[in-house]
Amino acid sequence: MGKYKKQAILSPITIIGEVAMEVTIPLVTAEIIDNGIKAENVPYVAKMGLLMVCMALLSLVFGALAARFSAVAGMGFAKNLRSAMFKKVQDFSFANVDKFSTASLTTRLTTDVTNLQMAFMMLIRMAFRSPIMLVLATIMAVRTNAKLSLVFIAAIPVLAIALFFIAANAFPRFNVMLRKYDDMNAKIQENLVGIRVVKAFAREGYEKKRFTDNTEAVRKAQYFAEKLVILNMPIMQLCMYGSIVAILWFGGNMAADGSMDTGVLSSFIMYVTQILMSLMMLSMLFIMFIISRASMERVYEVLSEEPAIKGAEDSDVSAEDGSISFRNVSFSYFSDMNNLALENVSFDIKSGETIGIIGGTGSSKTTLVQLIPRLYDATEGQVLVGGHDVKEYSLDTLREQVAMVLQKNVLFSGTIRDNLKWGDENASDEEIIEACKAACAHDFITGFPEGYDTNLGQGGVNVSGGQKQRLCIARALLKKPKIIILDDSTSAVDTATDSSIRKAFREKLSETTTIIIAQRITSVKDADRIFVMDDGKIVDIGTHDELMKSSSIYREVYESQQKGAEE
To answer: Which CATH class, in words, describes the domain spanning 2-304?
Structure first.
């Protein structure tokens, strides 16, 4: 609860005050009827009436305070829970992220937390109010007339059976409903991210129909779950009104024959109403917990998920240079040695060396380089950076030394300057400009009216694919890493710009180990060595000239690209 603990404690305390006033009011009512109105004692009625008004006002004040404290505590609880989940997700490795879909995490951070917030608010209010009211009102009712109390006690087993039936069947239905919400959020996210593609192919109608189908599935799942839960209220009302009718019948006969005063009967009915209302609130609380249970389990799944990759605690290991070694490395996304993405890969890269990686789609080029900054861990074998096993580093230290421009370039909402400072938040304007010049981004940035202060919008929607790639390269350069990895990061730029970027790298990053994954051989032609990958293995290593002589795969790719260029 953190700083909201005070409100969480004060809420039940004020509720006790509210309940105490409400339970006492029927006694005053009985006194007014039996000793005031019957005796025609106007001063007594006025005095006791004033007392009742004061008690009602106190009950109102206590109730308002309880509502305020519970609302603040509930919102604070939701805030802290979302923060804890978000922080947990930030510690996830790629393997952990693969386990949960983005849409599912979004639903858990929003809908599920909101459900838990409502349940918590009900907990610190109703979970205190209802039992206290139930106990005190029952004591007062039995004290008033024990024989007549048997009427409402008979209603309790009926309610218990009904609640058990609802609880046993409602939980799995709400689980299904939340999974439908995940599916709907996934479709929304997919559509909004790819809205330009949708419009380019004129698929708006198809997307509308698909979304309608998703929302209809959510509606049906929600209806299927809710139609069982709503039975709770009619059952409660049946028991409540049935009990009141029975009490009026038997109590009325008692009042008629003089064995029970009218005022006492009136107060008894008020106590019974309080008892049954308490039971109703407890049943509502119970139903809310059924609904929130599914959300609680989903939230707990995230909070209890242990990061698949943990850095060495209190490690002072630092990369001595930009050298990289793979020693009999194998990797599987499913930790299954029969389903390997990489198999028995071994090589050594010297510090400052430029390495090109070529291979067909599905050859695991990206998988290979993701093991260097420990975005994934090798299933078998050892990966060394700067002469040390990557597992000996703290994750922050390792990833500060390794800059990676991912295959999917991502920019965040904010200005160009804000995005570039992800590489170094303390970077000066001169350093930013230098990095952008090296990435061939400075010219187009200065072409914008606001230059480096241009707002990119969410995901960098205001720039082209090639511009986005160059900004991501500049961002990586600002880290001043010992190793930089470009994962097909120049695919959207023209060959002239690609050549300029490579030239800048040779001139300004001569001591930085550079790994370039590319589809175009021209992007890696000048590398010190080129790795040719096929089916998760490095099948050939050499310079461009060497591979043209010795590697049939490399030669075939080169000739097909040359033929395409000539045509």
So the answer is: mainly alpha
